[in-house]
Design goal:
The complex is a heterodimer of chains A (290) and B (261).
Chain A (H helix, E strand, L loop, with lengths): L2 H8 L3 H27 L10 H5 L3 H33 L8 H12 L3 H12 L4 H10 L3 H5 L6 H25 L3 H9 L4 H29 L3 H7 L6 H11 L5 H30 L4
Helix pairs in contact in A: 2-14, 4-9, 4-11, 5-9, 6-12, 9-11, 10-11, 11-14, 13-14
Chain B lengths: L1 H28 L9 H8 L1 H34 L5 H13 L2 H11 L12 H29 L3 H10 L4 H12 L1 H16 L3 H5 L5 H11 L3 H26 L9
Helix pairs in contact in B: 1-12, 2-12, 3-6, 3-9, 4-6, 6-9, 7-8, 9-12
Classes of the chains: A mainly alpha (290), B mainly alpha (261).
Amino acid sequence: MSQTSTLGRWLSPQWFGVAPFFLFAFLFLILPALAIVIGAFRGADGGFTFDNIVGLNTPTIRNAYWVSIRVSFWSALLGCTIGFAMAAAATMGAMPRFIRSPLLTFSGVASNFAGLPLAFAFIATIGPAGLITVWLRTEFGINLRGATGFNLFSTTGLIVTYLFFQVPLMILIITPALDGLRREWREAAEILGATGAQYWRMVAFPILLPSLMGTFALLFANAFGAVATAFALAGPQLNIAPILLFSQIRGDVLGSPGLGYALAFGMIVITGLANALYLWLRARTERWQK
Amino acid sequence: MKRFAAWTAFLLGSLIFILPLFGMTEFSLSMRRGEYSFDAYASVLADPQFRETFTYSVVMALFTIVFGILLVVPTAYWVRLKMPGLRPVVEFITLMPLVIPAIVIVFGYIRLYNTSSWLPLTGSAMGTNILLMFGYTALALPYMYRAVDTGLRSIDIATLTEAAQSLGAGWTTIFARVILPNVFVAVLSGAFLTFAIVIGEFTLAALLNRPAFGPYLQLVGANKAYEPSALAVISFAITWLCMGLIQIVARLAPKPPAQPH
């Protein structure tokens, strides 16, 4: 292909149709992300450096990432398990069919009910003066915090609260995969003498595994970037990566702008890896759903 | 046995939703000692800051929706019609906001568009509003694009476009009077979802220092006892309303009737 025809192709009027979109995407998605990546590798003197990335290795920042990863991991794992159980119960024929549609509608709502109001709802329920906390204390004399060590304003509380949007997200994503399990597979397994447990362990579960792992990765990324709920529950002192970054943007608490970019860069890497895993596994899953 | 296990799993799982929703409702009604009352709601509604920030966020949501429609519908249409090879690229870009956390995106904005940069958007209130609107558009992009693209899939845009062109229509006419009405339902569901996202958004508004509903919620949450629950109930109702409207709109999706003109 000659030089002019390539140029001509690039200058063809067709591109005007998508130019506004690409301009927007470049200015308000790609360039901001690039600015963070570049900032993470640029020293105070403007030259290239790994100092910022190496500088992440302090107890505070390491701990922030680690707590974030733990919260995201557990909320994703519990979200997957509970969501799967509920979706399986509602779709596999053990419950009346009329439950399915309201469940999916409700999941659509609940997966979008995040942020500050979600934190308020949990504070009103299992916070220090919440409905259940008070009820347990007055009716049974149980001190929730004293008896179980549960504290809503801790990482455990965060995990429980995140379940409110993680479980419905799981239900929304896994229901189509469960629908994709063909009746014939089950019948074939039964004819060959498989028990229910064997069918699940040797047929359904291996087929669903990429879906399950993919959704897990998505839920992980979903929890990892969440700021508002954690901020409302525990305030700026909770040491998780997004909140540390929030404080850094507000007032340079790390004492070095470059370190802030490196912190943000690390978050992109982690959510990016989780999403790449999700996309890769989803591509594998689709082979079974045709 | 199987039935019992299914019901048990389902009911135990639903406690995660039922208890907090019940808790926040009960709490929002118990501001007055010993009896249920709407005092917390009255207190919220009487707060001028509530009205100001809520109005601000509603206006921001409307602008974001209009801008999002103008950005996404022509692009999705054009890509389907003329440049199908570009689809994976465009789809990848629209998924970026799900990969990059909102807080990182806004961090990039602050670095790029601060007062000493080449495009000092954060220098004025109006500039920051516009930047915030772009940010919201970016956050809503995955949902908006997918909704519109699904809508376009169900109509034969090539034939519609040729028919309009042979009748002498220009691109603006084709877009406004042929394509947009045909994907109106899809656009509406994208719009409601955008509304639900923008109305309570906290991170962008807080870091760009705009008086939106999200930062106001944070302020109330930190300082009041019963009002946050009332606000949570109101927010949940708004989310329900948006999602409910999506369902209704989708159900009413007109199989375009032969309109006499």
